[in-house]
Design a protein that fits this description.
Blueprint: H1 2-14, H2 18-25, H3 40-47, H4 49-74, H5 82-98, H6 111-121, H7 125-140, H8 143-163, H9 172-192, H10 194-202
Length: 218
C-alpha cells in the first residue's frame, strides 16, 4: 500500500508540466513545436535558453519536493524501506512527467526528473551524476547521450552502494526491489529515447548548445 501511495504522490507532482505551462504563458503549445516533446531540451530550442532553464529547474524541483514529502511522511516509521519508497516516488514522478493524462499522455522523457532524484535520493549520487552527464554533454553536445548515461549510472550506482551497505538498514529483498524498479525506469528511458538512439548511431542526432538562443518551428 505504501508503495502505491508513493507512486501516486510522485505522479501528482510529475503532472506539473513545466514546459507546457511556460509555453502557454508565452502563447504556444510546446507539443506543436520542435520535436513535440514537453521537456527541457525542446523548450530550450523553441522558447530560448532562459525559458528552457526555468523548465529544467521546475522539473527538478517537482521530483525533489515529492521525495522530500515522502521522506517526511514515512522516513521515521519505515527507515528500513525509505530508499525503496523514494525510488517508487521517482517512478510515479517519471510516469506523471512522461504520460500526463490531461495532455493525452504526451509529456517529456524524464531527464530533469532523474536529475531531481539524484539530488534528493542520496548525497553520494550527485557528484557522480554531474560527471556522468556533464562530461559527455560538453564533449558532444548531445543531451540524449548524457541523459541515457545518467539513468544507467543511477542504476549501477544504486547496485554498488546497496552492496556496500550504504542504504542500511534496508534488507536484501528491499535492495533487490529497488534495483528492479530502477532497472525498469532505465529501460523506459531508453525506450523513450529510441529515436534519439537511432539518430546517435546514424550520426544525425541534433546537438544542443546551452548558451545559444534559438527558435525552432520544425
Amino acid at each position: 500500500m505504501l508503495r502505491l501511495v508513493c507512486i501516486l504522490i510522485g505522479y501528482c507532482f510529475g503532472l506539473i508540466q513545466s514546459a507546457y505551462i511556460i509555453g502557454r504563458i508565452k502563447g504556444i503549445d510546446i507539443r506543436n513545436y520542435g520535436s513535440g516533446n514537453a521537456g527541457t531540451t525542446n523548450a530550450m530550442r523553441v522558447m530560448g535558453t532562459k525559458a528552457g532553464l526555468v523548465v529544467f529547474v521546475m522539473d527538478i524541483l517537482k521530483c525533489i519536493v515529492a521525495i522530500l514529502l515522502v521522506t517526511a511522511l514515512f522516513g521515521k516509521a519505515h527507515p528500513e524501506s525509505i530508499y525503496l519508497l523514494k525510488t517508487y516516488t521517482l517512478a510515479g514522478c517519471v510516469l506523471g512527467h512522461d504520460y500526463p493524462f490531461y495532455m493525452k499522455f504526451k509529456g517529456g522523457k524524464g531527464v530533469a526528473v532523474i536529475a531531481g532524484f539524484v539530488i534528493a535520493f542520496h548525497w553520494t549520487f550527485l557528484p557522480v551524476a554531474i560527471i556522468v552527464f556533464t562530461v559527455p554533454f560538453v564533449l558532444t553536445h548531445y543531451v540524449s547521450l548524457g541523459s541515457l548515461l545518467l539513468y544507467t549510472a543511477c542504476l549501477v550506482l544504486m547496485i554498488i552502494e546497496g552492496s556496500l551497505g550504504v542504504f542500511t538498514p534496508a534488507a536484501q529483498p528491499v535492495l533487490i526491489e529497488m534495483y528492479i524498479v530502477m532497472g525498469v525506469l532505465t529501460a523506459m528511458a531508453f525506450t523513450k529515447h529510441r529515436a534519439n538512439i537511432k539518430r546517435l548511431l546514424d550520426g544525425t542526432e541534433r546537438k544542443t548548445y546551452i548558451l545559444h538562443h534559438e527558435k525552432d518551428s520544425q
